[in-house]
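Intended use. Records like the one below are meant for learning the mapping from a protein sequence to its folded structure. Do not use them to infer anything beyond what is encoded.
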Amino acid sequence: MADEDLPDEVELPITGELDLHTFRPGDISTLLPDYFEECRKRGILSVRVIHGKGTGALREGVHRVLEKLPGVASWTWPAAATYGGWGATWVHLQAD
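Structure written out for the chain above:
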């Protein structure tokens, strides 16, 4: 498929789970705030962000972004083992 056949934007379903495996680390600084804002609009206040275990670079990037976002009430890492353990972070958003 040629680049001109690819869509400019891909619509993500807004749920209580965001899997970052298909995203580049450079995307998270804009992706996370936008995604969380849409979650808040829909009343979703707990989101599991799946960043994987890997080298930890993506996780660290996610945590750096979370520390700066005003709509984030708190976050918990690692998630419980049944929810991804070291490969996931729970994000708790503030209600509007």
